[in-house]
Structures are given as C-alpha cells and as structure tokens.
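Hey, can you fold this?
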Amino acid sequence: MPGPNAASLLDDIMRSALEVEYEQAAGKRPDSNERNGLPAGRQGWLRALPMLALLVLIGVLVVSSVAAQRGNAERLRAQRPALVDRIEDQTARVEALQRQVDALRQQVAAATRAELQLTTAGRQLAADVDALQQATAAVPAAGDGIRVVVDDAPAGDGAGGGGRVRNRIYDTDLQRLVNGLWSAGAEAVAINGQRIGPMTAIRAAGDAILVGYRPLTRPYTVEAIGDTRTLEADFVDGPGGLWLRGLRENYGIRFDVTTRSNLSLPASNQVGLTLASGHPASGTGDRRQPIEQERSTP
C-alpha cells in the first residue's frame, strides 16, 4: 500500500500534466492571430467589410429611387393644371363643332324636304326619309313614354360588408335594359341624354360606362318614348324588368320606373352613311338592331 509520499507524487504529476494542456490550448489563439500579423478585432472588421459595402450600396439605391419618384410626382403635379386646361379646351371645341354639325344637318334636311315636296313622288320619298330618320335616331324625338332610373347598390350592401363594398351597374346591365325597352315597344331611347341609335355602342372603359364613347355618371336615367298604355307594363314584365328585379333582390341594385309625358330626346351624334344601295331592303320589319352584349353577366 503506497504511503503519503506516493500520493503526493501522483497529485503533482496530474496537476503538472493538466497545467501543460491548458497552456497549450490557451496558446493556440494568440499564435494564430500573430501568424496573420493582425489582432483578432481587426480581422473581424475585415470580414464584415463586404457586407457593409453591400448595405451601403442598397441604401444608395433606395435613396436614389425615392428621390426619382418624388421628382416624377412633382413634375406630374406641375403638369396637371395644364392637362386639365387642355382637356377642357378640347371638350369645348368638340361641343362647338357638334353644334355646327347639328345646325348644318338641319339646314340640309330643310332643303331636302323643300325639294321633295315639289312632286308626288318626292312627297312619298320625304315620308320614307322621315321614317328612316326616326328609326336611325338622326332627328330629335318627342312624346310620352317612361323613365327608368337605375343606380348602384348603397355602400356596404355588397358581399363582405365593411361599408366600402358597392355592387355596381355594368354596361351589360344597361344593354339588357335598353334591349328590354325595344322589346316592349319603345320608339326612341336615350341614356343620360345620349340618344341610342343603330350605331351607338354601350361599352365599359375601366370603371366608367360609355354610351357613344361618352362617359356616363350615375345614377343612369334611361328615357323611352312609346305607347304609355302598354310600354311600362310590357317592360316591367319583360326580360328587361325581370333582369332589374333580379339585380335588386340579389345585389341591392336600385331602380325606379315611372310614366312621363312630353319627353324630349336629342338626335344621335353617331349618324353616318356606311353603305348605300339603289335596291330597297327586303322585308318591312323593325330596322332597329339590338345592342350586342359583349361581356358576360357579372
């Protein structure tokens, strides 16, 4: 059995062995840094330099983009008044030209009618011309009829609620309404003062509805001249009225139909001769053509 001296010797050996290992382990890091010739903190900064440079580049790009956007916004704000003035000037010019066209058209019609009244055949032709002008909406129309006012659903009545959703009237809805009026016996139709003729298109451009390429504002007032004894009932019970009732029940669309007297509808501004022929067309049916529906039902 070893004595006290032997135990003390073993402790000295173990302690000195551990101290040597610790010294070697602790000496590795200083040796590595000194071998590169740089302190440990400076080496960390060098490794971070590429990332810092990338961040600086991204910051410069973001600042440049923001500055460019602000410059564009400033230019647009500066150009807006001039653009508005140009639009108003061109609109006034178009309206003035349209008034001149209407006046010249009336002069031509008066001269033609006076010339045709000189002979019996001419008087018959004048009657045919009057009928054709009414059918093509080339002349104003006046008489009794009905007025249909349609409007979007109140805000918040659409799916989802929230007070901001609004079920809207689409161009296809107005197309169905106008076709329903023709089917009910209407002789002349206008939407917000825009006469509907064979060449008149009801289209959509973004959120706006165009009639004859002119934008409409809601509510949409549709006036139709016809026999008031049957026009309202036939429209309400026909496809146009059924469609509007379906929109009201399912989407909250608003509409109102009333009988009116002494309606006055202007002539269409889209009257032009596209094809002339010396032979009369066969048949004596209605010359009006239903408006083509190009969009699917919303």
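Oh, and this one too while you're at it.
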Amino acid sequence: MKQSLIVAAFAASAVSALAGDVTGSVSLKGTPPPEKPITPLMADVNCGKASPGTVTTRHFVVGANNGLGNVFVYVKAGLEGKKSEVTAPKAVIDQLGCLYQPYVSGSVAGAAIEFRNSDAFLHNVNFMKSDAGNDTFNFAQGAGSKPIDKVFKNVEVMAKIQCNVHPWMFGYIGIVDNPFFAVTDKDGKFTIKGLPAGKYTLAFKHLKAGEVTQEVEVKDSGATVTAILEVK
C-alpha cells in the first residue's frame, strides 16, 4: 500500500538545499521501580524454552549514564512548507521469544507495518482500541506463517498491540505524520537523519515517564540535543 500524501510531499522533487542529522540522548531523573520477572512467560511450556532464563518487564530500560531506552523521539512541529527526500524505513515487528520485538517502534501514518512470527507456535496481534480513529484488527499468526501488513491511517502516539494467546505480550508504535522520528537505544541515544534546516519542536515520549518537548534549530551541520524525563 502506498504511503500517505504527507509522506509523498516529503519525497517531492523540490528538496530543501540544507539538511542535517539530529543526534542526542535522553536520560532519566530519579530511581525507577525494579523490573518484574514475567513469571507466566517463564512457566509456559513453549515460551520458557524460547526465552530461557529470567525475562523481565521493559517499563524502564536504563543504561549508561542513566540513558533511557524506548523513548519515541519525533518532530512535533516546524515542518510546514519544508520538503525532503527522506522516507522512513518500513517498520517490522516480530513475535520472538514470546515478546514483541521491538517493544517500541515508529511508523508514518498511511505506511504499511509488517508483522512477523518467528516463534515455532501460535501468536496473535490485537489492536483493540484506537484513540485516533484507526481501524482496529485482530489476527492470528501460526508458526511459519507469512508476514502480514497493517496500516494505521491516522497519527497516534502510542498505538498499543497485544497478544491474547500470551497476555503479557505488549508492543507500542508511534504513528506520526512525517518520517523524522527515532527510538532511543538501551543507553538513551538516538539519531534523526536528514531533517531540513529550520527550527522545530521535538517531542520525547516514554510510556511511563510521559512526554517532554524541546526546541531545536537544525543547520546543515545538524544539531545535538539532550532531554531529561523523570520517574513518575
């Protein structure tokens, strides 16, 4: 399926003369609660073999220098009238070891998202409630089944998916109206590539720590930003 008209506009032939990469980091202020072992996963006859050892929740992934992982970083304002050749790569969400991988991902409204099942047993993907008017869906994927594409037509940060076969399985997708977004790694680092020169509002969204915004000016040399989220 073709991406939305918004994405097509960014890929137009008239390209901004200057663009740069936004690199940065997000850190966590405060001490998060300890992650909890996912006991049902470890006790399940299939999932326990697929993910041996102790598997925990991923509410706060905190790495070096209090860097916070799984933060969805996106351009919230400032793209009006700007054009770019940048397009977002297709989002792929896998069901692996009885977890959604990645836990947090991003996509552009109107673009296809690919869902896979790499486990040797049945899963399903249920998008049961939309706050933005996106079509809900619920489909099964057995072992060895073909990937399935789904489209979220409207902006929604975050869209929540769940497996009803294994109810501890959750995943979240930031659906935005432009290709300029990223998800922080385990140490809170991120890069947004090719943002046209200009002034923007960046948003930093975390499932537990909420959202903060920050103004940034991008030049042809790019920009570096830092953000802080707090334990709530």
